[in-house]
Amino acid sequence: MAHANELYLGKQDYQVLGKRPVRHDGTDKVTGKAIYTADVQLPNMLHGKIVRSPHAHARIKSIDASEALAMPGVFAVVTADDFPDLTEKFALMGEAGQVNLTELAANCLAKGKVLYRGHAVAAVAAANVHIADEAASKIKVEYEVLPSVTWVLDAMKDDAPLLHEHLRTDSMGKKADKPSNIAVHLQFEKGNVTDGFQQADVIVEREFRTASVHQGYIEPHAVVALWNEDSRLKLWTATQGSFNCRQQVAELLQIPVSQVLVVPCEIGGGFGGKITVYLEPVAALLSRKSGRPVKMVMQRNEVFEGTGPTPGSFARVKLGAKKDGTLVAGEAWLAYDCGAFPGGMIGPGCMCVFSCYDLPHAKVDGFDVCNNKPKTQAYRAPGSTQAAFACEQVIDELAEKLNIDPIELRLKNAAKEGTRRVDGPVYPRVGFVECLNAAKNSEHWKSKLSGKNRGRGIAAGFWFNIGGASSCSASVNDDGIVCLVEGSTDIGGTRTSIAMQLAETLGIAAEDVRPQVGDTDSVGYTFLTGGSRVTFATGLAAYQLGLDLQEQMKQRAASIWDCDPTSITVDKGVYKQNGHSLTFKQIAAKIPENQLDPVVGRASVAPEGSTNAFGVHIADVEVDPETGKVTVLRYTAIQDAGKAVHPSYVEGQMQGGAAQGIGWALNEEYFFDAKDQMRNASFLDYRMPTCLDLPMIDTIIVEVPNPSHPYGVRGVGETPIVPPPATIANAIHAAVGTRMTQLPMSPPALWKALSERA
Amino acid sequence: MKSFDYAAPTSLAEASALLAHANGQARILAGGTDLLVQLREHLREADLVVDVKRIPELMELSFTPEQGLRLGASVPCYRIYEHAEVSAAYPALAEAARIVGGWQIQSRASVGGNLCNSSPAGDTIAPLIALGASCTVVGPEGTRQVAAEEFCVSPGKNVLRRGELLSTIVFPPPAKSGGSAYERFIPRNEMDIAVAAAGSWVELDPSGKTIKNARVAITAVAPTPRFAAEASQWLAGKPATEETFAQAGELAKKVASPITDMRGTQEFRVHLVGVLTKRTLAKAVERARG
Amino acid sequence: MSKKIHVSTTVNGESVEFLCEARQSLLEVLRENLSLTGAKEGCNNGNCGACTVMLNGVPVNSCIVLAVEVEGAAIETVEGLACHGHLHPIQKCFLEGAALQCGVCTPGFLVTAKALLDKNPNPSEHDIRFNLANNLCRCTGYDKIVKAVQAAAAELQTR
Amino acid sequence: MPVVFIPTPMRDLTDGVTEVNVTGNTVGEVIDALEQRFPGIKSRLCRGDKLAPGLQVSIDATMTLRGLRTAVAPASEVHFLPTIGGG
Predict the structure, then answer these.
(1) Which residue segments constitute the domains of chain D, with CATH numbers given?
(2) Stronger pLDDT, A496 or D49, i.e. the higher one
(3) Which pLDDT band, with edges at 50, 70 and 90, does A2 fall under?
(4) Which is the most buried residue in A693, A757, B188, C102, by most CB within 10 A?
(5) Which chain C residues in 39-98 lie under 8 Å from chain A, judged by CB atoms?
(6) How far apart, in whole angstroms, are the C-alpha atoms of residue D5 and residue A421?
(7) What is the DSSP letter of A598?
(8) C-beta of residue A336 within 8 angstroms of C-beta of residue A370
(9) Cβ count within 10 A of residue A591
């Protein structure tokens, strides 16, 4: 099918793309010189500290800060009352659609009720962190404790404690008649699922449960706020989107966006968890009240208890197939929690659950459910991993029942160009079949795995690429170096992948572009770093910028040669006309010599999201049947990258996502006690994988060009977290014959499953 | 962290006096890997922190095959496992020292500190009990010896009285046909707190086929580390076989009374006691045979 | 505010003096008093290794060392790794091997990795993984970090 | 004429009809045409002059954030989907 936005140039010989230059910001980061938010020191700076709820659900009866305010070295205290009145106020925030500002504010500082343990209630600014800490402990909050609920199915019950008395279930605009914790009910139907299942020779139906997990970035949330006497608010912060941060803060404080300047510092990981603001508006309020700059840095337990996580979930998935392996029908019922406030990841969960397969008949029901946990946030392909954990295990079981190789079964039913998804749209050119074939032909899949209690599993995953606006600008220096300012905050090396696309377009070396991330006053609007969009969308902007610069360079060359610019041809950075020839650098040097206009270029784009990235993972595991412990022996991640701009960083995304997925599979979870208090809010007890817990993670990059990008680039950041839990579960099943339907598949859980079977 | 005073005495007497006469709560600082976290998280409070690392006795590590090991209470873990002779003579101790936290923790954390922190899950405590170590406690009233298995009295609490500090842990000389092992179960492979753990020491008869003496200790499965007395006594005279080890594991389970928490269920932990006792005994016997 | 204590120490070979409160960690003093912000705070309780520095020749989590404890000690931080304008081979191998993404854990990894190679110039993959286990990375999956340490070991061996 | 895929929860308003051809050059016009045929559907799809919170439009396979202004070609499929974020 012809693609509406076909931009792909079909270039075969790349000069820069596909090479592995050293990243431009690398030296700063290996010498300790890179400035992260917590490294920012301002004269006369105060330190802020949040007071957090010790209860999972309670009414705030009173807050008394008098003792804290009387302490020497304490300068200001703020509570929810310091926010302007935001009743019935909504703001349109890009992908998130309309955001309820009352709820966003109440997540930063609780109003009336606390809805989870760790919910921020008040904040104090003091001369140093120790005084702030002591002062926070002296702010007296009186609570009336309310019953609480943290498991998603419990929260859906009629008699569950209600988080929001006025919340009624929304079914695409239709409101239910009584209050509930169920914020949203979604439904997708394709064909006739009853008829479909009647055609099936084999049906597998299973239920799955997953615990909440955290993004686990190593850098805690941090901000420095300076509210100046001219009403300008300057924020240095760790954010995935400086413009999104600016908008949220401006809306929450009801001030114009241009009054806020956000300086994105280097950011120590985000994975979706650093999009929503937590500290920024609070630090701003403290700075306004105290008249001094205020720094706030979360402690690790605050990060766990007050930010993230991704939804805990329940899923029931049913698939039917004919004897030859043709899938005929699928049904899924998904309930994802969204934590304290509505707006979780159920939409993408529903859209992803069957996204890898061509199903003639299918039905998907999804529920977004409030419960007493921190408001859920995006985490790498949000909603897709839980769905794949369910669907990919059911596929695995079907393959076993039908005695068909699991790759062959997937190939037979794989989504491809022209496949209509359950949620409606038809796929453009996608690379799932190519990924499956790469898996089938991989050394890993072809190798023999022997040994007791060992097994091999495979699973697939899918995620979208979102679109959104991106801007960049650049100037050409006398020495031919191009200084690039772009608006995407750089979490994992995207400065370089953007610079490489500019270099490719200009026909110069990656090292001859000097990229930097601009603040919100120095670069055009750029949507956040997330949704696997930066290398794709900001890369597209860099390409357009390259064309703009090239056009201007042609004009300068034309001035030098006194010819018509349109008569100049450019090939690999060499400009030619009628026997004349100058390189990009030579023209750059001649611009000041000839008193020509400096070359300054710009580009802004707002591409639509349309491209899709598939991945397939293979794992070999060994199970210790006496302890239930799983060791990952070998791991391979395969993914369609469209075109790998910097293969090392594409591999890095695949490896990092796989590692997070393995952690999610085996040990990570929010462990709640009977009072719905998280008991493992530390890196020690939350148990993210260390390097001793993982093998090398092999990667195979598949390149099926994205039609919506001149170089065929697809975003790669998120898909890699989707397959691992199902891959590991399928491998465990192959090793010991036990089907694990609950995450994490931790030693006690697997041991219990094994002993129950025995 | 609440404000506190700091002192770094250079003698046992000075330290004891500081601890005895402190205004408010005095806390001993060795490696600080537990204490500083607890102070920061308000799990413990201190008005005075007494850094004992400048006291020579507490930093002593001396070993001879005849005299055994004298281990100063503040000697960091890495000095134990980097000491070839000590590692060979007391493998259970070296094994535990190598897995207390990660490397950066082992650079600071000490066996004495681990014992005085008196966590039910302290990694080095099972080896101390299995190896028959004795603790030298110095205080205003003089010096006393406390058997390792009697040191901890409840989670976070031990026999130290006001003004007292642990100075040295004394290990008997290694037996000729002796061997020891420590193993804990954790979900990750390092940087974790034991879900359950066992330390075993055995001495074989000259044939190498029969257990002459044995000591088994288990941790993380009761309010305090436990000496599995019945299992240990039962092992004496038994053939060194898998069946014996498994049966000793069953006996060791009798002294386990674990709780269910985020690290594991009661049922799982009791089960692990059996598995780990069996595994450590097998390893200890293998080492005893040389 | 409680009274401050005077401490003399050596940081990256230079004599340094500072005043601090007893409750201040070495990490806090390095970052706030001495402006050495290379060591990062990731967890502030010894579980992530982002604050790793060398203290008298051994790697420690500086967040759980009191600054007053380092009287007379020798401290090395990530800022001291490169010398005379040249990156240490470990830094070079991290860069060339793309062994960092967000970079916030990188200083800790570099300090620990150097300590390992100083002690064991030819570590196995297991040695590397075992000794780096106190350093958490959430971005890379560790693959390229382990390979960078292997590459650095090889490069140092040829010197 | 563009074909609109009626979201499953709204099929109560369309008597179970799943796909309809309606005229319109933009999503806004398409929704107006839908409203003519199935009264009440507009208030489910829109909040004021904007797409309802949590909804986005996909024209064929292209998900867009442009809302009601999005151009619709005569051969296009129009889908109403939940918004998608990203991590």
Answers:
(1) 3-82 (3.10.20.30)
(2) A496
(3) very low
(4) C102
(5) 39-45, 47-48, 50, 77-79, 81-82, 87, 91, 94-98
(6) 12
(7) P
(8) no
(9) 22
Domains of chain C: 5-79 (3.10.20.30), 89-157 (1.10.150.120)
Helix and strand element counts for chain A (H, E)? 21, 31
Three-state SS for B282? helix
Candidates B103, B106, B192: best to mutate against C (most CBs of C within 10 A) is: B103
Residue C45 has a CB neighbour count (10 Å cut-off) of: 22
pLDDT at A254 over 50: yes
Name the minimum distance, in Å, from the CA of B49 to any CA of chain C. Answer: 9
Structural domains of chain B sorted by starting position, each given as residue range(s) with its CATH number in brackets: 5-51 (3.30.43.10), 60-171 (3.30.465.10), 178-288 (3.30.390.50)
Q: Which residues of C touch A660 (CB under 8 A)?
A: 138, 141
- Residue A215, classed as helix, strand or coil, is coil
Four-point Cα dihedral A485, A490, A493, A496, nearest 10: -10
Which structure tokens are listed for A108?
């930063």
Tens of pLDDT, residue by residue, chain D (87 residues): 899 999 999 999 999 999 999 999 999 999 999 999 999 999 999 988 888 888 889 998 888 878 899 999 999 999 999 888 766
d(CA B171, CA B71): 8
pLDDT tier at A96 (50, 70, 90 boundaries)?
low
Residues 6+ apart with CB under 8 A from C158: none
Q: Give chain A's domains with CATH numbers.
A: 26-34+467-605 (3.30.365.10), 430-465+610-758 (3.30.365.10)
Concatenating the DSSP letter of every residue in D14-33 gives: TTT--EEE---SBHHHHHHH
Q: Which has the closest alpha carbon to A382: A172, A215, A618?
A: A215
- Cα–Cα distance, B131 to B115 (Å, whole number): 14
For all residues of chain A together, what is the average pLDDT? 96
Task: Please report the pLDDT score of residue A530 as a whole number.
Answer: 86
Asked if omega into A72 is within 30° of 0 (cis), the reply is no
Structure confidence at residue A532 as a pLDDT band (50, 70, 90): confident
- Is residue A78 classed as helix, strand or coil in its secondary structure? strand
Please tell me chain C's helix, strand, coil percentages from 3-state DSSP, rounded to the nearest 5.
40, 20, 45
What token pair was written down for B163? 């003004």
Region A410-417: mean pLDDT is 97
Per-residue pLDDT at C98 exceeds 50: yes
**Cα–Cα distance, C32 to D14 (Å, whole number):** 66
Decide: B148 and B115 in contact? Cβ < 8 Å.
Answer: yes
A 10 A CB-CB count for A137 gives 15
Beta bridge partners of B168: B72, B136
Buried b (16+ CB within 10 A) or exposed e, A113-127: bbbbbbbbbbbbbbb
Name the strand (E) or helix (H) holding A406: helix A406-413
Q: Residue A382: list chain D partners with CB under 8 A.
A: 85-87
Is the CB of A172 less than 8 angstroms away from the CB of D7?
A: yes
- Residue A291: HSE in the Cβ half-sphere, 13 Å Cα cutoff: 1
Q: Which residues contact D72 (CB under 8 A, 6 or more apart)?
A: D2, D24, D25, D26, D27, D29, D30, D59, D78
Q: What's the pLDDT tens digit per position in A631-671?
A: 999 999 999 999 999 999 999 999 999 999 999 999 999 99
Q: Rounded to a whole number, what is the distance in Å from the CA of B188 to chain A's nearest CA?
A: 6
Whether the per-residue pLDDT at A611 is higher than 70: the answer is no
**pLDDT value of position A350:** 97
D2 lies within 8 A of chain A by CB:
no
